[in-house]
Amino acid sequence: MGYPYGGPGPQLPPPAFGRPEPIPNSGTAIAAAAISLIVGLLLAFGTLSAGMFAVTEVDRQYRSGELYFVVASSGVAALVWLSAAALLFLRTTAGRVLVIVASVLSLIFTIAQAVDTVEPLALMLMFPPLAPLILAAVPSTGRWIAAESTSRPGPVRRP
C-alpha cells in the first residue's frame, strides 16, 4: 500500500505559467460571414435588376458600354462576396482573405463614387463593407479558423 499523499502513482502535470490560450469564439467569424452573405445577395439582386433594365429598356441612351460594364463588374463582385461568405462559413483562411479583399475593394469603390458625386450621403454606403472587414480582420476570427483546421481528422482509411 502506497503513501496516500503523492507517493508512486499517477502524477499531475506541472502547472502552466502565463496567460491561458483563449477559447476560439465563433461570433466574429459568423457575423462577418453573415454580413458578407447579405451584401452578396444584395449585389446579386442589383445585378439582376440592372441587367433586366439593360435588356428591356427601349430608350437607346441607356444602352452603352458603361451600363454593361457596371452589370458585369457588379456580377463579379456579387460572386466574390457570396463565395467569400461560403468559404468563411466553412472555416477556411481563403474565405477570411476574400472577405477582407472584397471589403477593401468595396470601400475604395464607395469612396471614389462619393468623391465623384459630391454627395455626402453616398458615404453611408461605406458601412456595409466596413463591418465584415473589421470582423474578419480581428484575431479571434483567425483563431476560430485555426482551431477547426487543427481538429479536422485526416482521411479515413478502412481496413
Task: List the defining traits of the structure above.
mainly alpha; 159 residues; single chain; 0% strand; 5 helices
DSSP strand content: under 5%
| Alpha carbon gyration radius | 25 Å
Order of helices and strands: HHHHH
Biggest sheet details: none
| Ends apart, CA distance between termini | 44 Å
Parts with pLDDT < 50 across at least 5 consecutive residues: none
Computed structural class: mainly alpha
Helix content: 55-70%
**Mean of the pLDDT scores?**
82
Tally of alpha and pi helices: 5
Shape verdict: elongated
Overall number of strands: 0
Write the SSE topology.
Blueprint: H1 27-56, H2 65-89, H3 93-117, H4 127-137, H5 139-151
Description:
This protein is an all-alpha fold and about 160 residues long. About 65% of the residues lie in helices and about 0% in strands. It is built from five helices and no strands. The protein has helices at about 25-55, 65-90, 95-115, 125-135, 140-150. Helix 1 (about 25-55) packs antiparallel against helix 2 (about 65-90), helix 2 packs antiparallel against helix 3 (about 95-115) and helix 3 runs antiparallel to helix 4. The longest helix has 30 residues, at about 25-55. About 20% of the residues are buried. The model has no long low-confidence stretch (mean pLDDT about 80).
